[in-house]
Amino acid sequence: MNRIRLAVDVLLVEDDDLVREMLGAALTDAGLDTTESASAEGALEIISADVPTVIVTDIDLGQGMDGLALGRAARTRYPDLPIVYISGRYEQVSGLSAAERFLPKPFQTSVLLKTIAEIRQA
Q1: Dihedral, 83, 50, 80, 99 alpha carbons, nearest 10
Q2: Strand order from edge to edge, sheet including 9-13
Q3: Among 7, 39, 57, 84, which residue has the least CB neighbours within 10 Å?
Q4: Where are the domains of the chain?
Q5: What is the pLDDT of residues 79-106, one digit of tens each?
Q6: Can you give the pTM of this predicted structure?
């Protein structure tokens, strides 16, 4: 089985502990240096210290900012920062830029890895 190997730092933002752990492990197993956050606010703190190459964020993050607000805040400071939005509640998201993608849950890890590779080249 061929793995997609990328030299990229991924910030994974997911409030569900199990989903975050599973996705984080899958990204790490694919060779990606992955940092995780359970909230948008925590993610913004991480971004202020070390800008990731790609953000993968759930849209529904519980209390506080949602993933779309996180994306807007991050892209205010870094307009070309690629972001992959994921969600089990939305079927699609409109108005995304060329540096943004959306994946409805559930999805296969290979689809996420392919999306990350594609968005880096957008």
Answers
A1: -20
A2: 33-37, 9-13, 54-58, 83-87, 100-104
A3: 7
A4: 9-120
A5: 999 999 999 887 778 889 989 999 999 9
A6: 0.90
